[in-house]
Each structure stands twice: as structure tokens, then as C-alpha cells.
Amino acid sequence: GDVLVMVTDGLLDCHPDLAEKDLWVKKALAGLKTDEPQEIVDWLLREGSRLSGGQIRDDMTVIAARIDVR
Fold first, then answer.
1. How many Cβ atoms sit within 10 Å of the Cβ of residue 13?
2. How far apart are the first and last CA of the chain?
């Protein structure tokens, strides 16, 4: 039932306060109310774009997968 989320440094670096670059994704994931991988990816990309003021300076790649036990 875990969700694996991988992001490139372009997503981390979009936060205007570079001291927060690693923390904002962690905080965002902790506050999300969904465990649907596509919803997580979409939200992180939207938030990254918003934080960077719509100016994408580097690639922002996000991959999410749910790991289920059968």
C-alpha cells in the first residue's frame, strides 16, 4: 500500500527559497489526501509550476507508483 514518488532536481529547484527545496516536496506529500499516483504527479507538477512563477528553468519530471501486496 505504499506510494513511491521520484522527482528530478528541476522540481526541487523551483521553490524560490533554495533552503526549502528538499522540504517543500516532503511537506506537500505529507499533506495530500490522495494515494492515486496520477493525482500526485499532476498536483506536484502544478505546484512546481506555480512556485516557479510559470517560468520553467529545468526539466520537472515526476514519477509515482503505488506498490500493492497481492
1. 16
2. 10
Closest CA to 22 of 38, 1, 14, 69: 14
- This prediction's pTM: 0.85
Q: 69 is written with which cell numbers?
A: 501486496
**Positions in the chain short of pLDDT 70:** none
Dist CA 2 CA 19 (whole Å) = 28
In 1-70, where does DSSP find H-type helix? 9-12, 23-31, 37-51
- Containing 60, the helix (H) or strand (E) segment is none
Distance CA 68, CA 42 (A): 21
